[in-house]
Design brief:
Structural class: alpha+beta
Number of helices: 10
Distance between the termini: 39 Å
Helix content: 55-70%
Strand order of the largest sheet: 3-2-1-4
Strand content: 5-15%
Shape: globular
Largest sheet: 4 strands, mixed
Oligomer: single chain
Number of strands: 4
Order of helices and strands: HEEHHEHHEHHHHH
Protein backbone atom coordinates (compact mmCIF):
# COMPACT_ATOMS: atom_id res chain seq x y z
CA UNK A 1 0.00 0.00 0.00
CA UNK A 2 3.07 2.26 -0.05
CA UNK A 3 2.20 3.55 -3.52
CA UNK A 4 -1.33 4.45 -2.39
CA UNK A 5 0.04 6.33 0.62
CA UNK A 6 2.41 8.22 -1.69
CA UNK A 7 -0.51 9.15 -3.96
CA UNK A 8 -2.57 10.40 -1.03
CA UNK A 9 0.28 12.56 0.21
CA UNK A 10 0.96 13.88 -3.30
CA UNK A 11 -2.71 14.83 -3.79
CA UNK A 12 -2.87 16.54 -0.40
CA UNK A 13 0.18 18.67 -1.22
CA UNK A 14 -1.25 19.53 -4.64
CA UNK A 15 -4.58 20.68 -3.16
CA UNK A 16 -2.84 22.71 -0.45
CA UNK A 17 -0.72 24.41 -3.10
CA UNK A 18 -3.79 25.23 -5.22
CA UNK A 19 -6.09 26.59 -2.50
CA UNK A 20 -3.83 27.58 0.41
CA UNK A 21 -5.74 29.24 3.25
CA UNK A 22 -9.07 28.65 1.49
CA UNK A 23 -8.73 24.90 2.10
CA UNK A 24 -10.74 23.59 5.07
CA UNK A 25 -10.17 19.85 4.79
CA UNK A 26 -9.14 16.98 2.53
CA UNK A 27 -10.86 13.64 3.08
CA UNK A 28 -10.34 10.27 1.45
CA UNK A 29 -13.45 8.11 1.12
CA UNK A 30 -14.62 4.99 -0.69
CA UNK A 31 -12.72 1.82 -1.55
CA UNK A 32 -9.28 3.41 -1.05
CA UNK A 33 -10.22 3.83 2.62
CA UNK A 34 -11.21 0.15 2.90
CA UNK A 35 -9.98 -3.36 2.14
CA UNK A 36 -11.84 -3.24 -1.20
CA UNK A 37 -9.15 -1.10 -2.78
CA UNK A 38 -7.47 -2.77 -5.78
CA UNK A 39 -4.25 -1.05 -7.05
CA UNK A 40 -4.38 0.05 -10.71
CA UNK A 41 -8.12 -0.75 -10.86
CA UNK A 42 -9.96 1.12 -8.11
CA UNK A 43 -10.46 4.85 -8.34
CA UNK A 44 -9.31 7.06 -5.47
CA UNK A 45 -12.04 9.38 -4.19
CA UNK A 46 -11.66 12.63 -2.26
CA UNK A 47 -13.91 15.16 -0.62
CA UNK A 48 -12.29 18.61 -0.69
CA UNK A 49 -13.89 21.18 1.60
CA UNK A 50 -13.29 24.85 0.80
CA UNK A 51 -14.30 28.20 2.21
CA UNK A 52 -16.92 30.16 0.26
CA UNK A 53 -14.10 32.24 -1.21
CA UNK A 54 -12.23 29.09 -2.22
CA UNK A 55 -15.33 27.66 -3.86
CA UNK A 56 -15.66 30.81 -5.96
CA UNK A 57 -12.14 30.06 -7.23
CA UNK A 58 -12.61 26.28 -7.64
CA UNK A 59 -11.72 26.67 -11.31
CA UNK A 60 -8.07 26.96 -10.22
CA UNK A 61 -7.97 23.14 -9.89
CA UNK A 62 -8.51 22.75 -13.64
CA UNK A 63 -4.85 22.33 -14.55
CA UNK A 64 -4.42 19.44 -12.08
CA UNK A 65 -7.24 17.24 -13.37
CA UNK A 66 -5.09 15.52 -16.00
CA UNK A 67 -2.39 14.69 -13.43
CA UNK A 68 -5.02 13.32 -11.04
CA UNK A 69 -6.50 11.03 -13.67
CA UNK A 70 -3.10 9.52 -14.43
CA UNK A 71 -3.02 8.35 -10.80
CA UNK A 72 -6.63 7.06 -10.92
CA UNK A 73 -7.84 9.95 -8.78
CA UNK A 74 -11.47 10.67 -9.60
CA UNK A 75 -12.58 14.29 -9.85
CA UNK A 76 -13.08 15.23 -6.18
CA UNK A 77 -16.30 16.46 -4.65
CA UNK A 78 -15.75 20.15 -3.86
CA UNK A 79 -18.03 21.36 -1.06
CA UNK A 80 -18.27 23.95 1.70
CA UNK A 81 -19.03 23.09 5.32
CA UNK A 82 -22.40 24.84 4.98
CA UNK A 83 -23.29 22.78 1.91
CA UNK A 84 -22.47 19.57 3.78
CA UNK A 85 -24.45 20.61 6.85
CA UNK A 86 -27.57 21.39 4.81
CA UNK A 87 -27.50 18.59 2.22
CA UNK A 88 -27.74 15.32 4.12
CA UNK A 89 -31.47 15.15 3.34
CA UNK A 90 -30.79 15.65 -0.39
CA UNK A 91 -27.92 13.16 -0.71
CA UNK A 92 -28.28 10.79 2.25
CA UNK A 93 -26.87 7.73 0.43
CA UNK A 94 -23.71 9.57 -0.59
CA UNK A 95 -23.10 11.08 2.84
CA UNK A 96 -23.82 7.80 4.62
CA UNK A 97 -21.32 5.96 2.43
CA UNK A 98 -18.70 8.66 2.97
CA UNK A 99 -19.23 8.45 6.71
CA UNK A 100 -18.87 4.65 6.70
CA UNK A 101 -15.38 4.73 5.21
CA UNK A 102 -13.19 7.82 5.26
CA UNK A 103 -9.89 9.26 6.45
CA UNK A 104 -9.17 12.89 7.27
CA UNK A 105 -5.92 13.76 5.49
CA UNK A 106 -5.96 17.47 6.29
CA UNK A 107 -7.92 19.90 8.42
CA UNK A 108 -11.35 19.54 10.00
CA UNK A 109 -13.82 16.64 9.93
CA UNK A 110 -17.13 18.02 8.58
CA UNK A 111 -18.68 14.53 8.43
CA UNK A 112 -18.53 13.76 12.14
CA UNK A 113 -21.85 15.44 12.97
CA UNK A 114 -23.74 14.48 9.82
CA UNK A 115 -27.07 12.75 10.51
CA UNK A 116 -29.04 10.86 7.88
CA UNK A 117 -32.71 9.96 8.21
CA UNK A 118 -34.12 6.57 7.24
CA UNK A 119 -37.01 8.11 5.35
CA UNK A 120 -34.62 10.19 3.24
CA UNK A 121 -32.47 7.11 2.63
CA UNK A 122 -35.44 4.98 1.57
CA UNK A 123 -36.63 7.62 -0.88
CA UNK A 124 -33.21 8.01 -2.49
CA UNK A 125 -32.63 4.23 -2.57
CA UNK A 126 -35.90 3.81 -4.48
CA UNK A 127 -34.99 6.60 -6.88
CA UNK A 128 -31.46 5.28 -7.44
CA UNK A 129 -32.62 1.68 -8.00
CA UNK A 130 -35.16 2.78 -10.58
CA UNK A 131 -32.53 4.93 -12.25
CA UNK A 132 -30.10 2.00 -12.34
CA UNK A 133 -32.77 -0.17 -13.94
CA UNK A 134 -33.15 2.33 -16.79
CA UNK A 135 -29.38 2.60 -17.14
CA UNK A 136 -28.84 -1.19 -17.17
CA UNK A 137 -31.56 -1.72 -19.77
CA UNK A 138 -30.16 1.03 -21.98
CA UNK A 139 -26.68 -0.45 -21.55
CA UNK A 140 -27.87 -3.89 -22.64
CA UNK A 141 -29.41 -2.41 -25.78
CA UNK A 142 -26.26 -0.45 -26.63
CA UNK A 143 -24.00 -3.45 -25.93
CA UNK A 144 -25.89 -5.50 -28.51
CA UNK A 145 -24.79 -8.76 -26.91
CA UNK A 146 -21.07 -7.94 -26.88
CA UNK A 147 -19.70 -9.80 -23.87
CA UNK A 148 -16.97 -7.27 -23.07
CA UNK A 149 -19.46 -4.38 -23.03
CA UNK A 150 -21.84 -6.35 -20.81
CA UNK A 151 -19.02 -7.19 -18.40
CA UNK A 152 -18.06 -3.51 -18.25
CA UNK A 153 -21.69 -2.62 -17.57
CA UNK A 154 -21.75 -4.97 -14.58
CA UNK A 155 -18.41 -3.74 -13.29
CA UNK A 156 -19.39 -0.06 -13.48
CA UNK A 157 -22.80 -0.61 -11.90
CA UNK A 158 -21.68 -2.61 -8.87
CA UNK A 159 -19.98 0.37 -7.21
CA UNK A 160 -23.14 2.47 -7.11
CA UNK A 161 -25.30 -0.57 -6.35
CA UNK A 162 -23.11 -1.38 -3.34
CA UNK A 163 -23.63 2.17 -2.01
CA UNK A 164 -27.40 1.66 -2.21
CA UNK A 165 -27.06 -1.73 -0.52
CA UNK A 166 -25.16 -0.23 2.43
CA UNK A 167 -27.94 2.32 2.86
CA UNK A 168 -30.54 -0.46 2.87
CA UNK A 169 -28.66 -2.31 5.61
CA UNK A 170 -28.53 0.93 7.60
CA UNK A 171 -32.30 1.32 7.22
CA UNK A 172 -32.74 -2.26 8.39
CA UNK A 173 -30.54 -1.52 11.40
CA UNK A 174 -28.13 -4.29 10.38
CA UNK A 175 -24.37 -4.31 10.70
CA UNK A 176 -22.74 -2.97 7.55
CA UNK A 177 -19.76 -5.15 6.52
CA UNK A 178 -16.50 -3.53 5.47
CA UNK A 179 -16.06 -5.55 2.27
CA UNK A 180 -18.33 -5.06 -0.73
CA UNK A 181 -18.84 -8.79 -1.34
CA UNK A 182 -20.11 -9.21 2.23
CA UNK A 183 -22.47 -6.25 1.79
CA UNK A 184 -24.03 -7.98 -1.23
CA UNK A 185 -24.52 -11.23 0.70
CA UNK A 186 -26.08 -9.45 3.66
CA UNK A 187 -28.59 -7.58 1.48
CA UNK A 188 -29.41 -10.79 -0.38
CA UNK A 189 -30.24 -12.35 2.98
CA UNK A 190 -32.37 -9.41 4.12
CA UNK A 191 -34.32 -9.03 0.86
CA UNK A 192 -34.34 -12.61 -0.41
CA UNK A 193 -32.18 -11.91 -3.46
CA UNK A 194 -30.05 -14.44 -5.35
CA UNK A 195 -26.75 -14.53 -3.45
CA UNK A 196 -25.20 -16.83 -6.05
CA UNK A 197 -25.83 -14.26 -8.76
CA UNK A 198 -24.14 -11.48 -6.81
CA UNK A 199 -21.14 -13.71 -6.12
CA UNK A 200 -20.83 -14.18 -9.89
CA UNK A 201 -21.13 -10.45 -10.48
CA UNK A 202 -18.46 -9.64 -7.88
CA UNK A 203 -16.10 -12.28 -9.32
CA UNK A 204 -16.67 -10.74 -12.75
CA UNK A 205 -15.79 -7.27 -11.46
CA UNK A 206 -12.68 -8.63 -9.74
CA UNK A 207 -11.54 -10.13 -13.05
CA UNK A 208 -11.78 -13.69 -11.74
CA UNK A 209 -14.29 -14.65 -14.39
CA UNK A 210 -14.89 -13.47 -17.97
CA UNK A 211 -18.09 -15.09 -19.28
CA UNK A 212 -18.64 -15.10 -23.03
CA UNK A 213 -21.73 -13.76 -24.81
CA UNK A 214 -23.66 -16.98 -24.36
CA UNK A 215 -23.26 -16.79 -20.58
CA UNK A 216 -23.42 -13.01 -20.13
CA UNK A 217 -26.87 -12.53 -21.65
CA UNK A 218 -28.69 -14.72 -19.08
CA UNK A 219 -26.57 -13.19 -16.30
CA UNK A 220 -27.73 -9.71 -17.32
CA UNK A 221 -31.35 -10.87 -17.46
CA UNK A 222 -31.06 -12.22 -13.91
CA UNK A 223 -29.25 -9.11 -12.70
CA UNK A 224 -31.91 -6.75 -14.06
CA UNK A 225 -34.69 -8.97 -12.69
CA UNK A 226 -33.15 -8.93 -9.19
CA UNK A 227 -32.75 -5.14 -9.20
CA UNK A 228 -36.36 -4.83 -10.36
CA UNK A 229 -37.45 -7.12 -7.52
CA UNK A 230 -35.48 -5.10 -4.98
CA UNK A 231 -36.83 -1.81 -6.36
CA UNK A 232 -40.38 -3.06 -5.84
CA UNK A 233 -39.63 -4.09 -2.25
CA UNK A 234 -37.98 -0.78 -1.40
CA UNK A 235 -40.97 1.05 -2.84
CA UNK A 236 -43.16 -0.74 -0.27
CA UNK A 237 -40.66 -0.54 2.61
CA UNK A 238 -41.96 1.06 5.80
CA UNK A 239 -39.26 2.89 7.72
CA UNK A 240 -38.99 4.88 10.92
CA UNK A 241 -36.41 7.57 11.64
Amino acid sequence: MKKLEDTLEWFKRDIIEIFGNELVSVMLYGSAATRDYVPKKSNINFLVVLTEEGMADVWKAHHSVGRWRKRRIALPFFMTTDYIATSSDSFPVEFLNMRLAYQVLFGENPLKDIKVKNQDLRLQCESELKSKLLWLREGVVIAGGRASDLRNLVSESLISISAIFRALLYIKNREIPKKRAEVFLSVCDQFDLDAGLFKKLQALRDGKNKPDRKKMIPVMKEYIAEIQKLSNMVDQLNVKN
